[in-house]
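Quick check before the chapter quiz. The format below is the same one you will see on the exam, so make sure you can read both the input and the output lines.
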Amino acid sequence: MTVLSVQRQAGASLAAVLLVLLISYCTKLLRGCTHRPNRALPPKALEVAMRALYFLGLGGILDSTVRCGSDMLLTSSPWLAAMVRLACGSLWAAWGTSFWSGAEKDGSGFRAEFQRWPLWRLVKRYFADSMQMVLSVEWRSIKAEEIARKRSSPQYLVGMHPHGSFPFGGMVNGLTEIGDTTNLSVDPKGLSPAGKPLDQAGAEPWPREDTPSVHTRWFPHLRLRAAAASFCFWVPGMREIFLRCGIIDCSEPYMRRLLKQGLSVAVFPGGARESGFATPGVYRLYLRGRRGFLRLALESGVSVFACYTFGDEAIWHSLVDAPAWLSSVVQIAKESLGILPPIWLHLIPNRVPLTTVVGIPIDFSDLRPPPGEPASEENLDIAMSRYIDMLQSLFDANKGLVPGNHGSAKLVIE
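Here is the expected output.
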């Protein structure tokens, strides 16, 4: 194989991938339904064509890279170079079976045992065992009867905040079992950020004993999944991890389908726009313009509660004053991919405490539309006002109790 042929293959493959990104920029294919006209799914033919272009293009880039490496490192053994290329091609073909499976649309990739994967323990150890999920101290202020009612709903829609450069703490704390009660230094019968048992609920046993996760034990019927940008499922490695954690494509029809199946869904309303706010010491959310998750909750008839992860805003130091050309590239990538590629000053995350606080559910039964009808704009405004009040209360009540010196923090909600 000549160098020229390798270069031509790499160029053609790169052009195919760039064409996919250009089409996505125009059609919002990789951004989820929120940004598409009428929040509709893309035409099936377009999706198939885009997937084929992407798979062949990225595979061609991989093959060109392997060929170049083999030519430089294995010049004396053409047979070994051919075997390496064959092995890499086989791995790529195997990944293709996952890429074309559609598991991100129905949640079929979820594996409960993956929540106990040893990698999550290593992640927690990196953060000095300071990753945990706790109940908001507000739970201690309500009566036992109301506590029992609040946690007895069959399913919930969960708002996760903040998005951060990457919602690392919220996702790992919420979707794995590293935040177990044995490492929280709290009474196992009831939790608060201060590590004290809940006054009223402390006398009650945990509703579930089959999981150590705080939220899945506290809410007896909770079977939680999460939603992420469509592009996350087009990245090898990330796709497999997300699927096994129970993460699905954030397109509204897919989330609605899971809710109809009795599952609960966690969403990050701030999305890519909010990720641009991620700076240590800055507590800023983009929420007022994101009513889609509340529309979904009202029309599906489910209660809503919020989780706020203190520390997710400080995992990476972003380059705030980036050159104009670099900021433009990042914005174009955001429009194409549905994620905001971070401009970090360093790649290694800061070892900050990551505490996810679970709030009290809100019942929107008085705002729900008749079955089959859309939620009214007026009711969505009321629901958003209640949700923001609840989120602000959760933040203010717990900021001085969790580790990380957040006591003087001010939450800004846009």
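If your answer matched, good. Strands lie at 131-135, 156-161, 224-228, 247-249, 264-267, 284-285, 303-310, 354-358, 412-413.
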